[in-house]
Amino acid sequence: MPTVSVIINTYNSSRFLLRAIDSVLAQTYRDFELIVVDDGSTDDTREAVAQYGDRLTYIYQENKKYSAAKNTGIRASSGEYIGFMDSDDLWMPDKLERQVAVLEQHPEAVLTYCQAIYIDPDDRQIQFRGKTYCNPEGDRLVIADMRRELFMTTVVAPGSTMLVRRWAVERAGLFDEAHVHGEDWELWLRVAPLGLFAYSPEVLSKYRVYGWQKIITVEARESWLQDLEKIVKTAAELWPGDPAEAERLRNLSLKRIYTHAALASYQVGDPEQGKAKLEKLLAKFPLAANREDLAHMVLDRAKEIADDSGDMQAAEDFIGSVFAHLPDSARRYTSAGREAIAWLYLNKAFEESRKEHWDGTAGNLRKGISAWPRALLNRGVASISVKALIHSLRGQS
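^ that's the sequence the OP posted. Answer follows.
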């Protein structure tokens, strides 16, 4: 019986699947079985996997979505520990060795997860939403009760970073096959009462991303919102402490989810759906219906768009779309859009000034101040404006 069972669920992903399999078979830790669950692929997955012979177990099933495919793999496996892997992700060679050691040295931990870097379809390390890593950075192993963080959706690491004890998954009841979205998060919420989570900041996994379009297309779906609302309800029911605290955490988590859903709809070019979801957010959380909070919420997403795409105009257009299609309860704050656009460029000007890129500083200052002239009353804006002017005059002399 192997110590570790590695389960890869796949669907029409033969382009990446072989690289994922190779990264598992290259592990320095050798006491594992590899199970590939093909969830109804119509491409050449079966033929591609056949070349590995008995080095892995291949299971084909009619398409039942992620949760069912993972459960098929669990039921076919026998390892003491279970590692899940998406078919387009990759592992570092020592991932299993490092993570098995953590669980063996810390019996109080039911699950361990690691740091991951973002990669593009060609396996190149990239930044996504302005970040290189998809989990918190650190310099030491952290073993803690993560129920509060899970409730708040601040620790929902990619499944490919996890290694979990079999008994914990079985006692929790496997993946809920009713969930199409957030299935990992929902299971970890049910696993968390059984023990602590161990987080290692070591980069042991590579998480493939395809830019924002895929993420926001999912987050804009009504089914995504409904699934995550159900998961938050589960989190509240599992909360072991004060019911009032559970309700507070529930509201904070829902606020985050509604915000993501609304902004994603605006971002995919569906402002009417964005407006409807923003109305839902403001109805549930009326204190958020104020000029400052709306401006900050939209500006934060616009900055991420600019960081990810390098396209400041796309970020500006996003802000314009949101403030041109506000729900009735927030219509009086339409003018805050100009202020948000101003700060999009002014924040970029501050970044450029720290790098002493004075041409870029000046250009972004012009755009920001043009959008909202009152920005010149801000001491910081005035200061870098003077510095940019001095450097411009020096360049002319």
